[in-house]
Each structure stands twice: as structure tokens, then as C-alpha cells.
Amino acid sequence: MKVTYPHMGNMAIGVKAMLEELGVEVVLPPPITKKTLTLGTKYGPEFACLPLKLNLGNFIEAYELGADTILMAGGTGPCRFGYYAYVEQEILKDLGINYDLLVLEPPERNIMEFIAKLKKITDNKPIFQVIRAVKKGFLKIKAADEIEKKVAFFRAREITKGATDRVWQEFLQNLNRAREEKEIEEAVNQAVVALARIPMDLARKVLKIGVVGEIFTLLEPFTNFNIERYLGNLGVEVQRTIYLSEWVNDHLFLGLFKNYSRHKEIVKEAPPFLCHFVGGHGQETVGGVKYLKKQGFDGVIQLLPFTCMPEIVAQAVLPAVSEVEDIPVLSLVVDEHTGEAGLITRLEAFCDLLSFRQKGGNHEKRRISGN
Amino acid sequence: MKKGVFLGIDVGSVSTNLVVINEEKEILEAIYLRTNGRPLVALKEGLRKIYDRIKEEEILGVGTTGSGRQLAALVLGADTVKNEITAHAVAANYLVPGVRTILEIGGQDSKLILLKDGVVTDFAMNTVCAAGTGSFLDQQAQRLNIPIEKFGEIALKAQNPVRIAGRCAVFAESDMIHKQQLGLSIEDILAGLCDALVRNYLNNLAKGKKLYDKIVFQGGVAANIAMREAFRRALCTEVIVPPYFEVMGALGAALIAAFEREKQPYKTRFKGFNVKDAELKTENFECQNCPNFCEVVKIYEDYEVVGYLNDRCGRYSQMNNKKLAGIG
């Protein structure tokens, strides 16, 4: 059994660690590129959203490398993602690519349910080994998230452009290589030290932008044109409302680590604008705006794949949230089109808008003057 | 006597515009050219025309904007490079002080910009659809064999504007053809099209946003009197079309360069008018350095590389800064 699974940001690192600990052979798809997208759009249904197309591309590319089993997350609720695993398998079958499919549906009661499912995948390995594997995977994505948050801070303030990115890339490689828990800690410490050495301009006035929206678009830099890095290089500190480790804790571990994720806090902020679950992360998107405002952010960007229903619901609500909360919100729709010029124009204009607001106070100073 | 002027350039998908203002920010020259898909050719032609008119003057600063702003900045040596949303807002606020809402329809993009006390508070830009833009109007005028300049005049003669489906350019066109085959008059169809585009614009961009007075309508499409009329009807209020409405982006770019110099005096990076006679060439190649496989564009001026564009990681475009400090 050679297992593959789709890419989503840094997820691959964690899942790989977990599966390898369980003695499962992993075949990672090559990183998402234009080729992945081309394959996905060629064989995927036109009106499916970008995540499906990229998953499909991942699977085709991984098949060429010898994978024979797909590990996919499932889901319930109004978002179409729940049946993507099956649709994708059917499409692949039509192409003559026969994969075995393993779907991890979110557990309904507790974490043991999730572990029981994993046991099935791994040939009934003893439970302590499964737990150890899950823990190792989780520690890796947690480490990645921890450093990524720091990277956002440093990137906005670094003096030589690109210094932070170099540390980040090196850290990811170290993290991927780490075998023991201790090595993970070491990688983290190394990155922290390396970041601290980066010359910074602490006096720089930094804008803070929060990113909310659909999880795949948020986490996978290929789909969002690496928006976090782009904004970081413009001198903006960027935070997301969803980090993978938080999501795993909420959905797979059902909140095993208390107070680890901000999910509940964020959803709590959604009413009165959106009072119930609309699938995907629609409610989190709406709540996220108010949450970020409270955290002192200057603006919010919503990211969604074209045709994403939950996010469209949220998008319709956002103008009201933006007005009541007095915080600018920019919605960006991503799709297979690569109109990067338009995206950059919007991001630049959004940053201009925010810095006009930030200057505030003196009326004369607030006048548009081109900086 | 030599005087100081600022040059603003807006390289858009459909038009390339140049505006020259003096130190008092009075508009001296304004040029509107078709880009015709060749921004470098249009740029050179624009420079040639401007040069003929302002030979005597000294260029104090150059600002670029529009989707081709980086390209223009590299080729000319610009002092400020600004996105078109900010540039449009600066220009509108300058010509119509106190403006609250800007409706801007250009070739490929349409924009809605909201301001308060001269500060941009919100904006929207058409996303995945170009049904409500100048190019589409152009296309339809061409199909019906009507010069685009006459479009508005003809549409205004309509007695009973027909209803055209305006959600998407493809639907709109088939609906227009359908109405045309029913034998309805061109005037009524064109007027219906204007209403449809306004509906499309408001649905796509205004989405739940409140539009306050003063409303300014600018961009190439504002030349069309039927479109102005359609906006006025839909919004039930006066819609101002400022002078120089079609070169607002370039005006904004010039103003930004001028404001910037007032705030912090700089020596212009403008390379001079020789560029107008230079041989400009671009070449693209796929960078194999990482899985992004960016299509990098290399720009030559008289066989000398002046800069790179379009790489995501900055491996090549970083070199631009050495050639021309601080663009971006």
C-alpha cells in the first residue's frame, strides 16, 4: 500500500510523519504547480471549486510516482467537500487510474473513533503506536503553525527582503526531516534563534491584516498567490483565523486540547449577522471579522474559491459587518484564472486605504496624497 | 523659460493615457491613445506626442498607474508607481472636491470607489466577469456596425428600451441577437444594453453598499451619454462627469508624483525622452528554479536589459531595484 493525499499548505509534513510512524509507505504528490492545475481543470467538472481540481491534479501526479491508495478527509454539511473524495475517485476511474480510497470522516463522538479508523488503515497496529503517531503528526503541524505566525511578524519588519523567507524554508526542511519529538523541538528552537538574528526595523509602522475564508484557499499558498508573503513584503503583518493545528484539534480531536483553538471564540462573534452553520467556514468568516477587529487589526481579507457556497453566504453578510464594526473588508475570489495583475492592484489599493485610515486624526493629514 | 512639470502615465488594457501638469497642478496636456494590445508601442507614441508639445519644460517627476504600471515604470524611470484605484480616487477628489462615490468603467475593469472626507473608505472591482465594461460595449458596437462614438447618441433616441439580460456578457449578447431577430429597433436595443450594463455594474460592485452624493462617473465609458443617462435613472440622482474623465488615472498618477515631491523633494529618475525612439523589446522564459515555474518577462531597451517582471519570488525582479532604486 502506497498512500498519497492532497496538498494543503503544511499539512503534508504532519500527515507524512504520522503515516510513516505507523509503517505506512507514503508517496507525496509533487508540490502544486501550474501542471497540477492544468491536469485538474482538464479532468475536473468545470463548476467544481478550485480545491477539487487541485486535489485531482495531485492524485494524477502522485499516481505517476507509484501511489495506489488515497487518504482523504470527508465531511458532512452543506459544503460539497464531503463528497469530493468519491467524485474524485470516480473521475480517476474513468481515466483508468484505479486508486483505493480511504476516507476519514470527522468523528462524531470522540477522538477514539478517529483512532479506531486509523487502526483500520494501518493493519491493526497496537493502539499506543497509533496514538504516538497521531501525536507526532500533530506536533509537527503545531510547530509549523507556531513558526509561521512568527514569520508573519518578522517578514513585515525585516530590513533585507527575503531574510525571513529563507529561515522559513530552512525550518520546513528541518521539520520534515525530524524523526523524534526532540528533533521537532530542536527545529523550532533553531528557527526561533535564526529569526531573532534577522535585522529588523521595529519603528516601522506596520499594518495588520487578518485573513479569513475557506480553509483550503487560506492554507494553500498556490491558490492564494502566496498572499501572506506578498503582503508581508509590502510591510503588512498577516494573521489567519484558521491554522491547521487548530482545525485538527477541533475537528479530528474534537477539542481534546482545551483552549488551544480560537474557533469557539470566533464563531461566537458571528451573531447577529449569521446565527447558524452554513457549511464550510462561512460562520467563522463572519465571526472572524469582528474577532479580528477586537484584536486590533486594521483590515480583513476574505479568500474564497469561485462557486464556494458557504463563503458566498458569508460574503453577502460582510458589508453589514464591515459597516457596523467599522473595519474594511476585501473579498477576493480565486479560481484557475491567473489574473495576478488585478489581484495585486486590489491588495495595493486595500493597503493604501488602510494606511489612510491608520494615519487618522488630523483631517488635513488624512487627505489623499499619494503615499 | 523652462518650467517644471509632472508627467502621469496610465497604461491600461484598452487605453494608454498621458497627462502633464505644472507645479500649480494645472493640467497642461492630456493624451488618450488606444493600447491595441501593444503597451510599449502606445507608450512610445504617447511620449512622442507629449514631447512635441512640452519640449521646453523640465520634467520634475513621473508617476505611473494602470495594469501596465510596472512595465511603464521600468522603461521610463518613474518616481511613483501606484495602483489605479488610488490614482482614480486622487484625481476625482482633486477635480470634484467632496466626491463620495466614484463610478469608473474602463476597458477591462470597472471600479466603485467610496470616499469620505477625501479618504477612500471602500472600493470594489469587478472580479471574474467583464460583462459591464468598455470592451464589451465596443464589441457590441462593432457587431452592429456602429461607431462607438455614436453609440450614446443613437441609444438616446430610444422610445421603449428593451430589457436585455445583463448578468453575463455571453447571455447579454445572445439576448441582444434574439431581440434583434424579433425586429426591434437598434435604438431600443442599445438603450436596453446600457440599462443592463448599469444593472450589472450595481449588482456586481455595489452589493449592499450605500452610494452617497456626490457621484462621479469616469473612465472611457463615461463618454457615452446613454450610459450617463442610464446611471442617472438607476441611481435617481445627478451623476457628474468631470472634465478629463477619460484620463483620470493618468491625472491621478501625475498628482501623486507632484504631492510626493511636495512632501519629500526628490530628484526624478525619468530617463528622458530618448525612450520614444528606442527599440523596446520583451522576451519571456520559464524560470526552472522552483516549482512555481514563473513565466519571467525580460525587457530590453536597445538590446540592453532594463528589467524583469512577473516572477513571484523576486529572484529576477530584485535586480530592477539595482537598476532603478525603489520601484514597486
From TrEMBL, chain A:
**Superkingdom of origin organism:** Bacteria
Protein name according to UniProt: CoA protein activase
Organism of this sequence: Carboxydothermus hydrogenoformans (strain ATCC BAA-161 / DSM 6008 / Z-2901)
Automatic annotation (TrEMBL), chain B:
Q: Which domain of life is it from?
A: Bacteria
- InterPro entries, from UniProt? ATPase_BadF, ATPase_NBD, CoA_E_activase_dom, Dehydratase_Activator_Redct
Tell me one GO molecular function of this protein. iron-sulfur cluster binding
Keyword list, A-Z: Iron, Iron-sulfur, Metal-binding
Q: What is the lineage of its organism?
A: Bacteria, Bacillati, Bacillota, Clostridia, Thermoanaerobacterales
Which species is listed as the source?
A: Carboxydothermus hydrogenoformans (strain ATCC BAA-161 / DSM 6008 / Z-2901)
Residue span(s) of domain ATPase BadF/BadG/BcrA/BcrD type: 7-257
NCBIfam families to which the protein is assigned, alphabetical: CoA_E_activ
What is this protein's record name? Putative CoA-substrate-specific enzyme activase
SUPFAM superfamilies per the UniProt record, alphabetical: Actin-like ATPase domain
Question: What is its cofactor?
Answer: [4Fe-4S] cluster
Q: Which is an annotated Pfam family here?
A: BcrAD_BadFG
